[in-house]
Amino acid sequence: MDTIPVIDFGLIGTSDKKTSDTEEQWKILSENVFNALSRIGFMYIIKHGIPQSKIDHAFAESEGFFQQPDVIKEKYLIDMSKNYRGYTRPGQQILSHTSFHEFRECFSIEEPDEAYTVEETPGLISSIEDLRKHCRLPVRQLLRLIAMALKLDDEDYFVNNYNGGRLHQDPGLNSSMVRTHYYPPIPEEIQIPANSVRCSEHTDFGILTFLFQDAMGGLEVKALAGNWIKANPIRGAILVNTGDIMELWTGGLFPATPHRVLIPEEEIQKRTKRQSITYFVNPDSETLVSPLSSKLCHGSGRSFESVIFRDHYQKRLEASYKY
Ligand SMILES: O=C(O)CCC(=O)C(=O)O
Ligand SMILES: [Fe+2]
C-alpha cells in the first residue's frame, strides 16, 4: 500500500466505546484500521472531534515561544537528570546515528504540572495541555478499534494500559508526552553540513503517535517495500502512526514505521519554517510489554523480547540525547 488511508472517526461519534447503535460502524472502522496498520503503519484520522481552534492555538503559542531569542528559550532547557520536559535546542537530540545534525528544536511536556510555567509565553503550556486533553477521546477510541482489529477478547486491553484506563492522566503513572516542534528557516548564507536533516529517520518509542502538522509538508514515511512516500498535510486531520510498543505487542503485525523530515530541496520550503505537534501515546510506565499471542506473531518470523516500558523508553531517549 503506497498511500496513507484516511479514516473517518465521525462515523463513531463521541463515545469512547461502541454502543448498540454504532456497533456496525466500529466494526467497519476496525477493519480499516487493521488494513492501515498492517500495510503502512500510518493513517489520517478526520472528524475526530478536536476543534481546529485548539490546534491552531497550540501552533500559534508554540511559534511565539520559538521565535524568542536563544537565551530565553535556553532558560527552559531540558534537564535530563530530572525529566524530559522543556526545550531541546537544534542538534541536541539526534534520532539516528547516520545524521550529523538536525535542524529541529522542540519543547516537550511529559505530564501536567500546574506549577510549571513559561513566563515569556504564558499561553504555551495551557494551549498544549488543552490539546492533550482533547486527544484523549480519539486515543481511547483508536486503542479500542485496534483491540477489535486484532480480535482481542478484552477490547479494553490497550485502554487499560494507558493511564490505568482512566480518562485523566496521573503524574508518574504514565509518561505520554506532547512535543511541539519548530524547524527553523534555513537562510541562504548558512553552510549546511553533510548528513544534516530536519528530523532523522526513526521509529517512535511508544504505542502510537498523533501528529498535527502545518501546511508546509516534508514528512516522509517508509513503505514496507522500502520506498519513501510523502505524508502530505491534510488540514485538520491527525496523522497517526504506530511505535515500537505496538510492534512488540503485535509481534510485528503492526510494524513501527520509520519516518523522517529531510531538508527541503525547494528553495521556498527551505527558507520557510515548519511546525508540527506530536502527542506520543505511551503505556503506563510499569507495563510489561510482550507479544500478545502466538497467533499474532505467526508469520512475522521475528522474535521479540519483553520489556518494561519504563526501561525501553529511558534507553531510547538516552540514546537519542547522547550527542
Ligand atoms: O515533525 C514531524 O513531522 C515528525 C516528528 C516526529 O516524527 C517525531 O517527533 O517523532
Ligand atoms: Fe516520529
TrEMBL record:
Family annotation (InterPro entries): DIOX_N (IPR026992), IPNS-like_FE2OG_OXY (IPR044861), Iron_ascorbate_oxido_reductase (IPR050231), Oxoglu/Fe-dep_dioxygenase_dom (IPR005123)
PROSITE patterns listed in its UniProt record: FE2OG_OXY (PS51471)
GO MF, one annotated term: oxidoreductase activity
Keyword Oxidoreductase applies: yes
Fe2OG dioxygenase domain location: 174-283
Keyword Ubl conjugation: no
Assigned keywords, A-Z: Iron, Metal-binding, Oxidoreductase
Source superkingdom: Eukaryota
One Pfam match: DIOX_N
UniProt similarity note: Belongs to the iron/ascorbate-dependent oxidoreductase family.
Name this polypeptide is given: Fe2OG dioxygenase domain-containing protein
Organism from which the protein derives: Allacma fusca
